[in-house]
Amino acid sequence: MSNPVSPQWANLDDRRKAAFERAINVSGAGSVLVQNYVNRIIQQLSIREFGALGTMDRRPGQGKQAVINRRTSSTMTAANVWVSDTAGLTESTGSYAQATFDYQTLATRGKLTRKMRAIGRSYVDILAEEMTMKLDDFNDSLESAMFIGNSGAISTQIDGLLTQITGFGSSQYVANTTAVGGDSLTLSKLDEAIDAVKGSASRSDLAIYGSFAGIRALNAALASRQRFDSMVEIAAGFRVRSYDGIPLIVSTGVPDDSLGAATTGQILDITGESSNPTTSLVIVNKRYNWVEELTPTTMMPLARDDSQYEQFDLFWDGALVCSNTKGASLLTMIKT
């Protein structure tokens, strides 16, 4: 029984058919008589979402640090402020303090040999590709620091949102559960964490940052209540899901291996927990939290002093400013 005849086979004359049969029957010919095509797109093997870098406001900085003046409210009791027309007044004055945020530097260097660039010239400009991919690596480090940066552990690093918020006191973090290993997200606890943020009544100023696992946990909680909120538009025209009018923004900088204290919700270990890992949702009022930049992200090709290499530097000088201790909160102890 003969094999089905393909249109290409049918168009060959007898001589070509015989030659083709001989070629395909020769051992190894199938791997030799082939012109391979290499796709020109180099795939970056990573899954990264730069939610904070893409949505938080950027402001220009000056000097060696950002300086914020904070006022703690005075205590005014009803018995002292409601007075008769002949009573003396009780003095009650707020207190003032300064908070500073040192500008820190994130920097790295890329390097490529002259010969490697020459070899790959027919494929792509390898130096340009390396610059592009290196910028992605750079932004990943900066995004991570926006949440878990800790100058107490690394003196030259910025303090991230989780580090700063846990230092504001127990009023700014809410425990999702008292279970040691965390539990499924409870929407009433999320509402409590949102209410803890100054200016939360104006939902347009707020953002909820979470990891993939954290946002999935919130989606599951919404689905279980058959509550499907609308989409909202954020920076650069992107549309994302929202909760009660607040955009839900994914960031791979939010850790899924934190360890919380179930009684207070305080994150004791921001990362590194393996036995009972939990994640958090970070609720931020962008009016009170921003990225202050002394030097925006800059890529600088270096002057060549060696014929063998081409180099470039990437650097950024700035700080994450949490200007108001009531301007952000955490919902902790979410099971991952």
Count of beta strands: 15
> What share of the residues lie within helices?
25-40%
Strand order of the largest sheet: 5-15-12-6-9-8-7
> What is the class of the domain at 102-335 in the CATH system?
Alpha Beta
Q: What is the fold-level CATH name, i.e. the topology of the domain at 102-335?
A: phage-related protein like fold
How many angstroms separate the termini?
Answer: 60 Å
Question: What is the SS-derived class?
Answer: alpha+beta
Sum up the overall morphology in one term. elongated
Short characterization:
By secondary structure, the chain is α+β, with helices and mostly antiparallel strands. It has helices at residues 7-10, 14-25, 29-32, 51-55, 78-81, 114-119, 126-148, 161-166, 187-195, 212-224, and strands at 58-60, 65-72, 95-102, 104-113, 173-175, 206-210, 231-233, 239-243, 246-250, 259-260, 267-269, 278-285, 289-301, 309-322, 328-335.
Which structural traits does this protein have?
phage-related protein like fold; elongated; 336 residues; alpha+beta
Topology at a glance:
Elements: H1 7-10, H2 14-25, H3 29-32, H4 51-55, E1 58-60, E2 65-72, H5 78-81, E3 95-102, E4 104-113, H6 114-119, H7 126-148, H8 161-166, E5 173-175, H9 187-195, E6 206-210, H10 212-224, E7 231-233, E8 239-243, E9 246-250, E10 259-260, E11 267-269, E12 278-285, E13 289-301, E14 309-322, E15 328-335
Parallel strand pairs: 1-13, 5-15, 6-9
Antiparallel strand pairs: 2-3, 4-14, 6-12, 7-8, 8-9, 10-11, 12-15, 13-14
